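pipeline/complex-builder :: batch 7 item 3
reading input block
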Amino acid sequence: DTEVTQTPKHLVMGMTNKKSLKCEQHMGHRAMYWYKQKAKKPPELMFVYSYEKLSINESVPSRFSPECPNSSLLNLHLHALQPEDSALYLCASSPARAGETQYFGPGTRLLVL
Amino acid sequence: AQRVTQPEKLLSVFKGAPVELKCNYSYSGSPELFWYVQYSRQRLQLLLRHISRESIKGFTADLNKGETSFHLKKPFAQEEDSAMYYCALSGSTGFQKLVFGTGTRLLVSP
């Protein structure tokens, strides 16, 4: 399996809801990433996990809570989001070495009402 | 600080014309440079990276450290090349933070 998969594809949630985004890869990659992409903008890094440990948090609000339960899975827990958080959320993975290619999932399109 | 600049938001050419998508970078070290492409309704995917020195789908890119540039070129554009192209940079040491340029939309008309 050489792809990164993400579920769900689409998600609509209210500002008081709690939801989770899921990402999975079976390429043996030990680095996994969450990005946020607004329309017509480049992806912006949110979090990096290396060997299941959080290594980079780009000053993301605490209403976004990442989790890496094992080397193949990455979750993003969402709580009390704002409408401006509506975006495409991308997961990526790579070998845990500097300068390696990152492989992206198709994304979860999130709409916060 | 890492920075990637893509000066053109939109590049419109006719089929068969040469294409050059510009990318300049700022990095105080030895960077790794990438071109990613996002076709309509498809995931972001790697097109090429400078260390592989490959030609993918007819595209090439040469790293010019003196001019801090990594321009993407193709001698004869095809309609299926129409997509969003992102230049990206990461460091060659430490944690892998990938920084993207703002992207250039390439539109190839028949």
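note: Chain B has no helices and eleven strands.
queue -> next item
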